[in-house]
Design a protein that fits this description.
Layout: H1 2-30, H2 41-45, H3 53-67, H4 74-77, H5 80-92, H6 96-99, H7 105-108, H8 117-120, H9 134-138, H10 143-149, H11 153-159, H12 170-174, H13 184-192, H14 205-235, H15 241-261, H16 266-289, H17 301-320
Helix pairs in contact: 10-15, 13-14, 14-15, 14-16, 15-16
């Protein structure tokens, strides 16, 4: 009995060893290459050897990509022109220009109504979108902003020849395709590109510019408060004529701030905005002091009867005389 059990155990061990040997020597011949997802580098380069310097450099790049979780894909290696065009369209599609129907041809030229690519590209020009030429191009639609910008030192430097000095053009702040209007919180970063201690171009400007734009918010608040007071006073029958005049002046100043900003004269801008704030506050004060309007009382029924009585008495006295 013991002999039979030992024989069975020995047979099982031998069978296991034979199976392991077969798997060890036969599996490589039948094993299939792994199916790597996401079109990874290993799909094409799993047999890459360190045979040359370019291959070693590629391996280093591959390792960095894999460590960062970046697979090789068409998103990185697609045609650069198509990639740039797609990105440009995406930026334009969320811009103010898109909302107002300002299409590519307005800046780049060409024929937007053409059917074929060749016809559509007739008249394309890079000259109009050159950085130094963008003010005149943008000024076709933004005339008041261009007029103010031409009074600025920025424009003078941009127009000058032979001076290698930084000066912003329209696309410097508003970008070429996203056409973004900067907020007070964003303006400091943009101004700091030129106005900093490294360039030595008045590093105090960015903070002051942010404060100047923030004051526009105060103007908007005061105008809103004045408008509310005037509306309530008018509904209660009070005279708000003078208050409305002050408020209208404040509104004009607010409407002009986008253009005035392009003068890049912060002192002038701050003064203008403060005048608007003062006008709005004056409107509030005048409204608070306004008196109820006393309507002129129209002659009532009693007055009409009295007039008729005097008329009758007059004619009767004339008749008796």
């Amino acid at each position: 009995m013991r002999f039979k059990n030992g024989l069975r155990i020995t047979t099982a061990i031998v069978f296991a060893l034979v199976a392991i040997s077969l798997l060890t020597f036969i599996q490589p011949a039948f094993a299939q290459e792994p199916n790597f997802p996401n079109n990874t580098c290993a799909d094409c380069h799993r047999r890459l050897l360190f045979a040359s310097e370019p291959q070693r450099q590629f391996i280093e790049i591959r390792i960095k990509h894999l460590e960062a979780g970046i697979p090789c894909s068409i998103e990185c290696h697609e045609d650069q022109l198509n990639k740039t065009t797609s990105s440009t369209y995406a930026l334009w599609s969320i811009s103010a220009h898109f909302l107002y129907g300002v299409t590519c041809d307005k800046c780049h030229g060409g024929n937007a109504s053409a059917v074929t690519k060749e016809e559509a590209h007739v008249g394309l020009s890079n000259e109009s979108i050159a950085r130094a030429n963008t003010p005149e191009m943008c000024g076709k639609c933004h005339a008041s902003q261009l007029a103010e910008f031409k009074t600025s030192k920025h424009f003078q430097i941009l127009e000058s020849t032979g001076e290698n000095l930084p000066a912003p053009a329209c696309i410097t702040c508003h970008q070429a395709h996203s056409v973004h209007v900067l907020t007070a919180s964003e303006i400091e970063d943009f101004c700091s590109n030129c106005h900093n201690n490294i360039t030595g171009i008045n590093p105090a400007v960015p903070k002051r510019a942010e404060a100047a734009l923030s004051s526009v918010n105060e103007l908007q608040v005061e105008i809103s408060k004045a408008q509310s007071d005037i509306t309530s006073a008018n509904a209660s029958g009070r005279d708000v004529t003078r208050a409305q005049e002050e408020l209208d002046t404040a509104k004009v100043i607010l409407g002009n701030t986008p253009s005035v900003w392009h003068r890049f004269n912060l002192t002038y801008f701050e003064t203008e905005v403060q005048l608007g704030i003062d006008d709005a506050k004056n409107a509030e004060n005048i409204t608070a002091q306004s008196q109820a309007v006393t309507p002129t009382k129209a002659p009532g029924f009693e007055g009409i009867l009295l007039i008729i009585g005097f008329t009758i008495a007059y004619f009767m006295s004339r008749r008796n005389s």
